[in-house]
Design goal:
Beta-Lactamase; eight-stranded mixed β-barrel; 25 helices; 27 strands; 24% strand; elongated
Length: 750
């Protein structure tokens, strides 16, 4: 037995079919044709007319049927034309009132040209249809920064039948708007697309209304057509999918009877038009959904009837994404702790509400060398340790105190309602105990951590959140520099120290373009007191900080990738100075230059090759001093360049010999001509018997290998006499003179 709803639906379908004029015309035509074929011959026979007339009517009777058919076709055409005009008018009204512009685009000779566009384009974007169809219109109005992306995405039409993308487009009034372009490829030759173009600029505005709008991939929109009484005539499948209703549920029913709107206090009869309404409910799978209902009135059709289009946009995914984005913006994904953004908001709120007789403190905790844990055990183990450390910190801090993760292995703790400094120090000691306790790893292994903690206190160290955090960071960095202590309170001196460091780093980038770098030279003598050369030493005469040694500024050059450039600059300056000495009649045997291993590069070899071609006699006077400790396990490329430099005529000296562990290896593998004995051995030569024996052994060994030996830091006659007796070849030190400018270095001492 049929369901009652099915019977009612069948009756409605038959009733609506009979009301169609074209269907009624077909029925009347069939009846008229049957009647004509049956009745007309009998009527002709029975008519009281002459036989000739009857014969004439019988002969023309088929043509009468043709005339009847023509009359039928005339009225049938009128009915279809009326229906077509009605459909076209509804479609035109939809296009005219729709916020979406529809178009057809073709690609001919690499030109993207619009061949058809819906009439609402002028209302939505300000351009007429003729302007839209002009050559190059689409490309010329895309925002310059989005043009490349738009072109690349459009080329997906060769491979994908349908795609969606967003970009900025110039409105006729001159400003740019965001548009969502939904494109479907309809032909390959020529490449043709049909698409819909929606102005989504309001979607990007952070307002409650905007949060309800559709996004590119996460929303779906269903449509319902309503009659003049606001009852549903037809719905599409997306409308039913979103709402969980069926076609039967919707048939000839009011939206107000089906949907639950949350942001209307009073519904007198109908939902209002041209307004975004929030709808909630459960879909067919009984899952909660949120959607936006928007109703627009279409222009009256040709017979005066009014229709409405209702759009139901599913925003469930958007709301879920908003919650996820909120979490991503304010919480660390690994530890689950609030992050830097949360710290700024919470600390600002705390300072606004803190009583005048209370202190607040910001502690920044950064683990020392935590990268070694990741390198040794893997990042998955490092992540687990950070999660366990997070729990330890949360268990350690006082009740109500928040712990924040500022990224990776850096944490922040905000202490509120602090009465005295000693309270902060107590909590710092407890934090240190929490991370110093070893972390157990699989297979019985353990990891112990150390950390540096910096503290800034409100209101003494700052009155706003950003300043307190910055100064706690200063204190933490200072704690890292202080090897004896791993915690530090902020002081004004720290700011000055960090400001000086920042100023020095900024000046280091351009110092070679100034005359602030000075070259000094310390004489090198034979054991009988003859000056045979000099060692070039650099000093930075800073206009604010005074004279700076290489130990201060070379790390800055290294950090700014300037070591190569600095080394080349020194070599060129020394070559120029040697040439000047020769012009003055002074001809040193060798001029030594200190180089770091990082400076032994292809650029150095290329520079020396060029200088060798221009001034070969001057280049052979150079002597490169390489610290033994920097040559520990040198790269093959470094050894190769050293060998090439030796072939160019440059001498190689091992500086600070005996300080490192690879002395014998360097003598074996490198074309060394001289060694310089570490200053520490020479300083104790006349007071420490073991140092004396070590120096003598080094001189005996290297002399046996055919190498020259030079002592550094000779300060008295006793040291000099001992070196002579051991067979040393050269020396330098304050016993003769310290480093001086080039004009006086070779002048004899009085």
């Amino acid at each position: 037995m049929k369901d009652g709803n099915e019977i009612v639906a069948a009756k409605k379908w038959r009733s609506s079919l009979w009301r169609r004029p074209e269907f009624r015309l077909i029925v009347w035509y069939i009846l008229a044709a049957i009647a004509w074929k049956i009745i007309a011959p009998e009527m002709i026979i029975r008519l009281p007319i002459e036989d000739n007339t009857k014969e004439f009517l019988t002969r023309w009777e088929p043509w009468g049927f043709v005339a009847l058919s023509i009359i039928y076709l005339y009225f049938f055409t009128l009915a279809w034309a009326s229906r077509l005009r009605k459909s076209r008018q509804i479609l035109h009204n939809y296009f005219h009132n729709s916020p979406t512009v529809h178009y057809e685009l073709r690609v001919v000779d690499s030109d993207y040209r619009v061949y058809w566009v819906s009439p609402n384009c002028e209302r939505v974007m300000g351009y007429t249809a003729d302007e839209v169809k002009e050559t190059g219109w689409w490309l010329s109005n895309i925002h310059p920064k989005d043009k490349e992306l738009a072109l690349k995405t459009a080329l997906r039409g060769f491979d994908e039948p349908q795609f969606v993308y967003e970009y900025r487009f110039r409105h006729k009034s001159g400003h740019y708007v965001w548009v969502r372009d939904e494109v479907r490829c309809i032909a390959k030759k020529p490449l043709s697309f049909q698409g819909s173009w929606t102005n989504i600029s309001n979607d990007l505005i952070e307002t409650p209304e905007a949060s309800r709008e559709a996004s590119e991939y996460s929303t779906r929109s269903g449509f319902a057509l309503l009659n003049e009484n606001r009852r549903i005539l037809k719905v599409d499948s997306l409308f039913t999918d979103i709402s969980g209703l069926t076609q039967k549920d919707c048939a000839d029913t009011k939206l107000e009877e089906l949907l639950t709107v949350t942001d209307l206090d009073d519904i007198s009869q109908y939902f209002p038009c041209n307004r975004a309404l929030l709808v909630i409910g459960r879909n067919a799978e009984r899952k909660r959904y949120s959607a936006i209902l928007s109703i627009r009135e279409l222009s009256p059709d040709v017979i005066g009837k009014t229709y409405y289009v209702a759009t139901l946009t599913d925003v469930t995914t958007i709301k879920q994404q908003q919650k996820q984005l909120q979490r991503l913006a304010f919480f660390d994904d690994l530890t689950g702790l609030p992050n830097t953004n949360s710290l700024a908001l919470d600390l600002s709120r705390l300072l606004d509400e803190l009583p005048d007789d209370r202190l607040a403190a910001v502690l920044i905790l950064n683990l020392d060398h935590f990268h070694r844990v990741n390198d040794t055990f893997g990042h998955h183990v490092g992540d687990k340790i950070l999660q366990r450390l997070t729990q330890r910190l949360k268990d350690t801090v006082p009740f109500g105190t928040k712990v924040y993760n500022l990224g990776g292995d850096e944490f922040a703790i905000v202490l509120n309602q602090v009465v005295e400094y000693i309270d902060i120090e107590t909590i710092i000691r407890q934090l240190q105990q929490s991370y110093e306790s070893p972390f157990a790893l699989p297979q019985g292994k353990q990891v112990s951590l150390s950390a540096s903690i910096g503290t800034a206190v409100y209101p003494l160290d700052g009155h706003d959140a950003s300043k307190l955090v910055a100064r706690a960071q200063f204190a933490m960095n200072s704690a890292k520099d202080q090897q004896a202590s791993n915690s530090c309170f902020y002081t004004q001196e720290l700011t000055q120290s960090n400001s000086d460091a920042a100023l020095l780093e900024e000046d280091a980038r351009s110092v070679l373009q100034t005359d602030q770098i000075q070259l000094l030279y310390q004489p090198i003598l034979t054991m009988d007191g003859q000056v045979v050369g000099a060692e070039a030493l650099t000093r930075w005469e800073h206009p604010e900080m005074g004279t700076l040694s290489p130990h201060t500024f070379l790390p800055l050059f290294d950090a700014n990738n300037m070591l190569d450039t600095f080394g080349i600059w020194v070599i060129e300056q020394v070559i120029t100075q040697i040439e000047q000495w020769h012009d003055d009649g002074v001809k040193p045997e060798k001029i030594a230059i200190n180089l770091a291993t990082e400076q032994i590069s292809p650029l150095l070899y290329e520079t020396l090759t060029r200088l060798t071609q221009d001034k070969p006699e001057l280049v052979r006077l150079l002597e490169f001093e390489l610290s033994e400790s920097t040559l520990h396990e040198p790269l093959e490329q470094t050894l190769d360049i050293i060998d090439k430099l030796h072939k160019l005529g440059v001498s190689l000296v091992i500086d600070r010999f005996g300080k490192g562990l690879g002395s014998m290896l360097h003598l074996k593998n490198m074309p060394v001509e001289k060694i310089k004995i570490e200053r520490e051995f020479i300083q104790e030569l006349d007071t420490n018997g073991r140092s004396a024996r070590i120096v003598k052994a080094m001189i005996d060994m290297t002399s046996a290998l055919g190498l020259k030996v030079q002592a550094v830091g000779v300060e008295n006659e006793t040291q000099l006499e001992m070196l002579k007796s051991y067979g040393c070849h050269y020396w330098q030190g304050r016993l003769y003179k310290l480093a001086e400018v080039s004009d006086t270095v070779f002048e004899p001492e009085n």
